[in-house]
Amino acid sequence: MYQKTKIILAILLSFSFTQAKDMQEWLRPSEIPQPKNNKLTPQRIELGKLLYFDVRLSSSEKISCATCHHPKHGWSDEIATPKAIGHEGAVGSRNSPVILNTAYQNRQFWDGRAKTLEEQTLKPIEEGVEMNMPLSILIPKLNAIDGYVKLFDIAYPKEGLNKTTLAKALASFGRTVVSTIAPFDNYIMGDKNAISKKAKRGFKLFKTKAHCIDCHEKFNFSDGSFHNIGLNDGELHGKELGRYVVKPRASWYGVMKTPTLRDVTKSAPYFHDGSVQTLVEASSICANGGRYKYNVKNKSTYIKDRGLSRQEIDDLVTFLHTLTGPDMKLKIPTKFPQ
Ligand code: HEC
Ligand code: HEC
Questions:
Q1: Inter-residue contact 152 to 160 (CB < 8 Å)
Q2: Which residues of 45-56 are buried (b: 16+ CB within 10 A; e: fewer)?
Q3: Ligand 2, atom 11: nearest CA belongs to which residue?
Q4: Are the CB atoms for 262 and 179 separated by under 8 Å?
Q5: Distance of alpha carbon 58 from its chain centroid, rounded?
Q6: Which positions of the chain have pLDDT values less than 70?
Q7: Ligand 2, residues at Cβ distance < 6 Å
Q8: How far is the CA of 288 from the centre of ligand 1 (A)?
């Protein structure tokens, strides 16, 4: 009898332990990751914020980083478009991703071609279809603005105002753009009523039958890896090479980074090509074997027809809604250094 109770107790204990561990995976890391040579300071973040919203960083003086990654639109395009619209209305080749939680990513861009935010951040400035501003012109332009020279000197003493410090300042602000506490976080932290029954069913499907967790995992709902989810047919038509651009291996054709699902309700349209308007459609594509089910070269083996009913897709989408928190508290600058 005694023995039996002990066994039952042990089973119960290990069950609640694994359950707690299972929940812990989803918790927010205690600190925002930051490189040793660019630790976050209030001065760096504030400077980066001014630069982020300053249209003088573009050749037309009409476009800032916020044009395509705006806080009022879940950090994606200010005016939702399937593909980014930049300099003089030029249409880029991809949908603007949200810049939420990029601090937690070890690769930037849909194809991961930049490793760090510092490396990533100067590219849109020079890109012809984005801000169209050569750094050889921008750096002297900023050095002629006394207000900026002073702020760089305070944020990066003795480092000067050059492309390295410009990248560091922008990256510092970028790192602070993190998701706020969503109902899901309260649920994970122990408030059992923070999300509805339907959302709980959705979460369960997410982790089990629907296999979303195979790629959208942990706090940021991304494995940081790259997959082809069958959005296009097997032929690449020479268009979207995906990660192949970085690593020219056949298996990387058309493969893209798993995006975060945090605040995903705010950033339609979806996918790298902005081809989908709703979360129901996006989730159905991911759960039911991709848009193109057969003969897609490199399609991930995690993308299979999971046989989800409409009701189950609905539960999943209700769960995705619990990942949206209130907008981050932020004062958008209206006055810029002169
Ligand atoms: C014209 C629109 C546009 C402008 C302006 C723009 N971006 Fe982007 N941004 C994009 C697009 C499109 C991508 C995805 C490109 C790709 O993956 O090839 C992107 C990607 C990113 C990423 C990577 C996110 C991820 O999850 O991989 C970051 C970070 C970022 N931009 C920050 C910035 C900053 C900082 C600025 C200002 C210096 C800026 N962007 C200006 C459109 C824009
Ligand atoms: C094989 C890995 C994988 C699995 C499994 C997976 N996803 Fe994704 N998901 C991705 C990738 C990669 C993208 C971006 C694809 C692209 O744009 O080419 C994506 C994009 C999305 C998007 C669009 C996000 C945005 O900002 O554009 C949503 C929503 C989504 N997935 C939800 C789900 C749901 C719900 C499930 C489970 C039914 C799921 N995913 C299963 C890898 C996966």
A1: yes
A2: bbbbbbbbbbeb
A3: 258
A4: yes
A5: 24
A6: 1-21, 234-239
A7: 210-212, 214-216, 227, 229, 231, 256, 258-259, 261, 264, 267, 270-272, 279, 282-283, 286-287, 300, 302-303, 316
A8: 30
Using CB atoms within 10 A of its CB, is residue 248 exposed (0-12), middle (13-18) or buried (19+)? exposed
- Per the CB < 8 A criterion, the answer to whether 306 and 209 are in contact is yes
CB atoms closer than 10 angstroms to residue 283 = 28
∠ CA 102-107-108, nearest 5°, is: 60
232 CB less than 6 Å from ligand 1?
A: no
Q: Retrieve residue 46's tokens.
A: 């504030």
pLDDT score recorded for residue 1: 47
Measured in Å, residue 258 CA sits from the centre of ligand 2 at 6
- Rounded CA-CA distance 164/315 in Å is 47
The protein residue whose alpha carbon is closest to atom 13 in ligand 1 is 96
| Å from CA of 260 to ligand 2 middle | 9
- Give the C-alpha separation, 281 to 291, whole Å: 10
Whole-number pLDDT of residue 3: 58
pLDDT for res 185: 97
Cα dihedral across residues 79, 82, 84, 88: positive or negative: negative
Cα angle vertex 337, ends 141, 166, to 5°?
Answer: 55
Nearest CA to ligand 2 atom 42: 258
Cβ atoms of 241 and 313 within 8 Å: the answer is no
Distance CA 17, CA 184 (A): 20
Distance between Cα 175 and ligand 2 center (Å): 23
Report the pLDDT value the prediction gives residue 293, as an integer from 0 to 100: 87
The letter for the amino acid at 121 is T
Diameter of the chain by CA atoms?
Answer: 84
The residue type at 239: K
Distance (Å, rounded) from C-alpha 5 to C-alpha 247? 57
Tokens of residue 100, six digits: 């939420």
Q: Which ligand is nearest to the CA of 209?
A: 2
- Cβ of 318 below 6 Å from ligand 1: no
Angle, alpha carbons 269-275-276 (nearest 5°)? 55
